[in-house]
Amino acid sequence: MAETDYDDNNVKIITTEIQTENPILIEGFPGIGLVGNIASQQIIDELKMEYVGSIDSRHFPPIAVLYEGLINMPVRIYESTEHGMVMVVSDIPINPVVAYDISKALLTWAKAINVKEIVSLAGIATMSEEHKVFGAATNMDMLEKIKDKVELFQMGTISGISGSIMGECLVREIPAISLLGSTMSQNPDPRAAAVVIDVLNLLYDYKINTEGLIEQAEKIEIEMQRLAEDVRTTEQPTAGGRKEFPMYG
């Protein structure tokens, strides 16, 4: 356990000591098209990032995630000291009711490890078949950084946990950008995730390969859809009816 661990009645963050000084923190929670989730997992695999900890909450659905026969926590934290990066990836949706608690915990922890800036990866619904990346930022310096590499998100809202994280970054004055991959479908969209990674490569010179995402798009779509169904089956009825955990935004 690290001195920077976070624990309250709602959220617990436990990691080994983060080795990177002033890391860039990238987060990918499930939303529309599972863009953030798919992109984050590809980055973790390509950069061979090291698992360093997890985020847990009593508000999360009761589920464990299996990968190649091994049990994983559903919300995990990875680090690449080589690339000065910490990654937070989630395989479960975050109920909007608890999004604020998760965002507050994550940003408190991010402050404790002295993050340099935060990048939020998510999807955005569009009517165009062309895959684009829309961008937004919490200050003018970050906006200047992305303006020539994305289509600026001029007006609208970023919903769910990603929106909550960006709002918390603004309040705490942590430099942050949101990269939103456009998709026409609620279904998992690896192609939208690939164009988001392409922008990350331009911004941070990561050289992350996306060919595998494109080649295995259909397989990834099926696997992620199955995970979404597994999460839905864990929902418990309440006195007021079923409590929904929307996987897509």
Mean pLDDT: 87
Task: State the order of secondary-structure elements, H for helix, E for strand.
Answer: EEEHEEEEEHEEHEHEHHHEE
Radius of gyration: 17 Å
What is the end-to-end distance?
A: 32 Å
Q: What's the story with the biggest beta sheet? A: 10 strands, mixed
Strand % is 25-35%
What would you note in describing this structure?
33% of the residues lie in helices and 27% in strands. The chain has 249 residues and is an alpha/beta fold. A ten-stranded mixed β-sheet has the order 1-2-4-7-8-3-9-12-10-11, sandwiched between helices. Strands 5-6 form a two-stranded antiparallel sheet. Strands 13-14 form a two-stranded antiparallel ribbon. A hairpin with a 2-residue loop joins strand 5 (65-67) and strand 6. It is globular.
Give me the secondary-structure topology.
Elements: E1 6-7, E2 11-15, E3 24-28, H1 35-46, E4 50-57, E5 65-67, E6 70-72, E7 75-80, E8 85-90, H2 99-112, E9 117-125, E10 133-137, H3 140-146, E11 151-152, H4 160-172, E12 176-183, H5 190-204, H6 211-215, H7 217-233, E13 237-238, E14 241-242
Parallel strand pairs: 3-8, 3-9, 9-12, 10-11
Antiparallel strand pairs: 1-2, 2-4, 4-7, 5-6, 7-8, 10-12, 13-14
Helix pairs in contact: 1-5, 2-4
